Amino acid sequence: MSLSRRGFIGNSAAAAALLSVPSLHAGGYVKPRVVVVGGGAGGATAARYIAKDSKSAVDVTLVEPTNTYYTCFFSNLYLGGLKEFDDIGHTYGKLAASGINIVHDWAVGVDRDKKTVSLAGGSDLAYDKLILSPGIDFVDGAVEGWDISSQNAMPHAYKAGSQSELLKSQIMAMPRGGTYAMVAPPNPYRCPPGPYERVSMVAHYLSQYNPIAKIIVADPKPEFSKMALFQEGWNSHYAGMIDWIGSEFGGANVAVDPSAMTVSIDGESVKVDVCNVIPAMKAGRIAELAGVTEGNWAPVNAADMSTKADSDVYVLGDASQQGDMPKSGFSANSQAKVCANAVRGALTGSKLFPAKFANTCWSLINANDGVKVGATYKATDEKIAKVDGFISETGESADIRKQTYLESENWYMGITSDMFG
Ligand SMILES: Cc1cc2nc3c(=O)[nH]c(=O)nc-3n(C[C@H](O)[C@H](O)[C@H](O)COP(=O)(O)OP(=O)(O)OC[C@H]3O[C@@H](n4cnc5c(N)ncnc54)[C@H](O)[C@@H]3O)c2cc1C
Description:
Elements: H1 5-10, H2 12-16, E1 24-25, E2 28-29, E3 33-37, H3 41-54, E4 59-63, E5 68-70, H4 75-79, E6 89-91, H5 93-97, E7 101-103, E8 107-111, E9 116-119, E10 124-126, E11 129-132, E12 136-138, H6 162-172, E13 179-183, H7 194-209, E14 214-218, H8 227-237, E15 242-245, E16 254-257, E17 262-265, E18 268-271, E19 274-277, E20 281-283, H9 285-289, E21 298-299, E22 313-315, E23 320-321, H10 329-348, E24 356-366, E25 369-379, E26 384-391, H11 398-420
Parallel strand pairs: 3-4, 3-11, 4-7, 11-22, 13-14, 13-19, 14-15, 21-23
Antiparallel strand pairs: 1-2, 5-6, 8-9, 9-10, 12-20, 16-17, 17-18, 24-25, 25-26
Helix pairs in contact: 3-10, 3-11, 7-8
The structure holds flavin-adenine dinucleotide.
């Protein structure tokens, strides 16, 4: 159900009982206001769906500091030379044209009593419902020797944009036969197969331009997403190039020295040419400032993504602690649609649909060699719970792998138009 302004006012007495916010404010009728913080996979989708489906019955403001959002998804393909940098950049013009108020600023505080968000630029935004989808920040001190001031010498490239360009330029500048090291993150983190797709794409690049170069991965985990598929691909495409050191072999015992460009793994120091440090992660800081986190993440109710701390504040995507879904762009987009439906329902009385979620994570091991893992999920009282799943098999034909890669290209086109219009 969508309500025109006239219809809304005419029916306001009957509708008032349904709505969680008053439609009449001190100065007369005011549309319900939704503020969305973070214009990525979760936030851009939620803003777009609330604005589109409410047919302008809800005022939507999207706060996002960057003018161009570079997707982390496919950023590894850019590192591998299979995409151009511009291919992964998206702007907010279509969302603005659809009526969403785009504010390019940082949210720096949330007053949950007054229901306002303060911006770095000095202004405040009032909300009836607040949606936070700020992605991730890094846990201080997670990798000995590394902090955010070292990110130029040792990039994370786990927020796409200038970090991705920097890492790519470092890979291209590696000396012949040089060494690329990765410090992989502990669970839970953004995009479980992401570091291993990156290893594959770096190997793809090096095998063409620097074939005697080496890749070392220090990993604090004993195993990782799609491990058998990646290891099979590394053996067949990049034999001898990649040395993965898991936790049983000291991969968790790591320190780096960005000025000396050394990595110490289980006490043994190695001089490297590129060091990609991907530290442990936590919810984007604004979730913590809003007081909706417990530990590193923001616990949410699966039915609508509202936080356990405040039913008018919702957290989507990587920052949320929701249950079984991996932290992925697909998941954030899926959660955003559930949340948008619930927020619109609460503000306009529109029909509520049962919460259903889906995710697929595709990864590219070599050109046209795509693999995937995915699942469907439902909301239970306790969490977002997995219903059933699927995964590519080892030994699949080149044809199946190519089809899987082409699926991922279609998905990328689909999700970016779903986010940005
Ligand atoms: C290398 C790599 C590969 C990946 N590949 C895939 C893939 O193939 N498929 C897939 O589904 N997922 C993939 N992902 C994961 C995916 O990128 C994330 O899970 C997804 O972007 C999460 O969406 P989000 O909305 O939570 O955060 P984001 O998309 O990161 O959006 C957060 C936004 O919030 C903004 N923000 C942060 N703080 C503030 C603030 N205080 N005020 C205002 N704005 C703020 C940021 O600028 C950012 O634009 C990959 C990730 C990486 C790193």
